[in-house]
Amino acid sequence: MTRKAIAALTLMALMGVGLWAADKVVLNALFMKQAGFSEEDITAGTRDFMDRNPDIQVNLTFVAYEDLEQKILTAAAAGGYDVVLSDGPFTAKFAVGGIVKEIPPLAAADKADIFPGALDACEYLGKYWGMPWINDVRYLYFNKKMLAQAGFKRAPATLDEMIAQAKVLKAKKIVEYPIVLPWNQAETLSCDFTTITALFGGAMAKDGKPTLDTEANRKALEWMVRAIKDGLVNPKSIVYGEDDINGVFEGGNAAFMFNWTYAYGVANDPSQSKVVGDVGIAMIPGNGRVKSATVNGGQPLCIASGSKHPNEAWAYILYMTGKDFQKAHPANSLPIWRSLYTDPNVVKSNPDVVAVAKTQYDYIVNRPKVPYYSAFSSMLQVKIQQALLGRKSVDQALKEAQSEAESLAQQ
Q1: Which of 30, 182, 233, 293 is 20 to 30 A removed from 259 (C-alpha atoms)?
Q2: pTM for the structure as a whole
Q3: Distances in whole angstroms, Cα of residue 354 to Cα of each of 36, 135, 155, 267, 336
């Protein structure tokens, strides 16, 4: 209930006017079914919010991630939803298209406590269009037993160290292809290219303009091509997604992979994994002066532009993204708040992951914040794959990608 409404009811009471039970404000909220906070987490948090705010009712809808963007585009602006779970790559498109509302200003202390990369995913043209909620990045996963057999006592801290260790692992025939990565022609490839270009000091866009054809990006793509040619990255990586590389890693057929948080639990599940107890997790290896970099897989909660109850929608978002909810439900998504990484409930939820995450989150890199990101990413995946398959040179692939990205920007 707003302050004005409370004041009006108080005045009526003082004047002796009879009060009738007001109708509840009804909010419709859209979430996804998989990854991040579970449906049980969201339902429990929503129930707690409604208990604390008996004048507000929140109806929940869950859809697959693949259906999320279209559902928002077709229903949110028209008023079908008040709160929507967005995604970092949607921010620019939703802001320009008037799909979501700018959020109220955040307190300086709150902004300082949120990991910068997570907050940056919600910003476009100097304004914030959502509140970080699901927090996820990619990590380096490694097989501790394999590394020990090869004579290594720790995970690689740099790309050069990872390649050097991979060469020894291969030479000693501990594993045929030491590295497996999710490089199929899908968004997962754009995610890894975001990480690897950042490790080489590159970026795919700056100030809303594509910057694909640069020396840093060329070195990044050359590294990817060379790693496959040298037999260090599994050649089937070009057809593998995240779940596929999990299968290779948990089957004991890779020493290294880059993947999201969920992979740690999968690789340590004795019902499906052969490497339980041998799974290590570390920060993505750095390169030169770049200590580390990792792609942001986080997702914000936004106020739909068609909402007739934006104040109540914002109150619900603040509760679901707040510290009480996030420290109570850390099993499936770690907090956006730095200060919670010493909270006992958060730490005990997954001690090994928490120990790495609290530092890896300082090296978050966001995919390009451009309104045409979907078309940009689809085009880029094709060009990268052409280079990985040897159908085009690295130089040609990036020059063509730059030209096509510039055309997308002009449309």
Answers
A1: 30
A2: 0.89
A3: 15, 12, 17, 16, 12
